[in-house]
Amino acid sequence: MNKPPSRPKNPNFSSGPCAKRPGWNIENLRTDMLGRSHRAGPAKARLKDAIDKHKKLLGIPDDYKVGIVPASDTGAFEMALWSMLGARGVDVFAWESFSGDWLKDVTGQLKLADVKTYEAPYGELPDLSKADPARDCVFVWNGTTSGVRVPNGDWISGDREGLTLCDATSAVFAYDMPWDKLDVVTWSWQKVLGGEAAHGMLVLSPKAVARLESYSPQWPMPKIFRMTKKDKAGNKILNADIFEGATINTPSMLAVEDCLDALGWVENIGGLNTTIARSAENYKVIENWVAKTEWVDFLCEKPEARSFTSVCLKVVDPWFARLTDQQAFIKSLTKLLDTEGVAYDIAGYRDAPAGLRIWCGATVQGSDLEALMPWLEWAYQTAKLEEERKKAA
Fold first, then answer.
1. Pairing state of beta strands 136-140 and 164-167?
2. Rounded to whole angstroms, how far apart are CA atoms 289 and 360?
3. In contact, 88 and 132? CB cutoff 8 Å
4. Rounded mean pLDDT of 304-310?
5. pTM to 2 decimals?
6. How far apart are CA 82 and CA 181, in angstroms?
7. CATH number of the domain that 367 lies in?
8. Quick one: 257 and 283 in the same domain?
């Protein structure tokens, strides 16, 4: 099979870290804060600017707290789990790798006594209607490793007594989040913004703040998880400085400038509505290709639950089903694409079924995805032919 005539200009389709914004250049980043203390006034102002821009662009309610915290989305979500759970029973919904990790934390590390678990295999959603408004709820919005997302927030009660804790990395800036249904939300800059890693975003509703100030877990709390302090009267209160740009540990000011550059790009292209539309349009390119390609399909069978960012595909060719080492075949296929410089890092997640995972977030250009589709066909047929040659030898 002949190689396609055109190539993607940007072959970065990894699901994290993700492609930089169109036109990105490191020379565009401010460097005057490098080498300065992050607690100096001008540096702290840059951190606060990143917080304020997030809040404005995403339409986060005024009475919600937004902060920059350590260790990417993982650190942000761990902070929430360790600081708030245990006050009441908790429902945990898990259907892919990261939601599975949160389930392991809740049951294996925190060892909470009153936990109800609702699980589903890769490509499916658990029964979200089982969420009990009287209990806390832990879930991810977009299953980055499965290509399955929560379609909407209709299943979350507006009169809930418990907190909803939502890992929303790969979702924020790609979907219109129902903030009134969410009490704790986390994400990282490295996903839809295409920013650098290491820092996480944490959003707290007034209910979440009240939980922090009224409840003290029974386990020790590491420094980077501590979100409260004592006032002069000895009362436990929220450490509000965290949500004003005073980070718990030392941030990378270069990463902060990169984030501000991405947020500026979002502003310039029209804001949240545009990033949502770009992700949806990018997904549509793959959807159209899948519809006319016999050997491939979406891992998620329900269209309304398919991710528009981390698009996961499975091979449905009966020939592929007979292979003894399907992961090895996918590795061969993706190596061809890597060698040609047309797609990097698009193999499915290591714990997921053998397949492909293509990032379609807003920083990806639709024209690059259009150019990639013929290369996927070329790589599949080329790898298949090579596999048959090996068997015949």
1. parallel
2. 14
3. no
4. 98
5. 0.97
6. 21
7. 3.90.1150.10
8. no
Which has the closest alpha carbon to 200: 29, 15, 31, 54?
54
- Which of 240, 266, 292 delimits the end of a domain? 266
Alpha helix (H) residue ranges in the chain: 41-58, 72-84, 97-104, 206-214, 253-269, 272-291, 318-321, 326-340, 366-392
User: What's the burial of 282, exposed, middle or buried (CB within 10 Å: 0-12/13-18/19+)?
Assistant: buried
222 with 361, same domain: the answer is no
Cβ atoms of 10 and 21 within 8 Å: the answer is no
List, for residues 170-217, the tens digit of each pLDDT value.
999 999 999 999 999 999 999 999 999 899 999 999 999 999 999 999
3-class SS of residue 287: helix
Question: d(Cα 102, Cα 84) in Å, to the nearest integer?
Answer: 14
Residue 301 and residue 253 in one domain? no
Asked whether the beta carbons of 386 and 379 are under 8 A apart, the reply is: no
Residue 1 pLDDT level (bands cut at 50, 70, 90): confident
What 25-34 contacts at long range (C-beta under 8 Å, 24+ apart), as own/partner pairs, is 28/261, 29/254, 29/257, 29/258, 29/261, 30/257, 30/260, 31/254, 31/257, 33/253, 33/256, 33/257, 34/253, 34/254
What tokens does 339 get?
A: 């060698």
CA distance 202 to 371: 36
Residue where a domain terminates, one of 224, 241, 266? 266
CB atoms within 10 A of CB 54: 23
Tokens representing residue 258 in the block: 């990169």
Range of the domain at 373: 272-392
Cα torsion angle, 268, 269, 273, 275, sign = negative
Distance CA 163, CA 160 (A): 7
Q: Please give the biggest Cα pair distance in the chain.
A: 81
CB atoms within 10 A of CB 264: 13
Distance in angstroms (rounded) separating the CA atoms of residues 210 and 131: 21
Tokens of 342: 């047309």
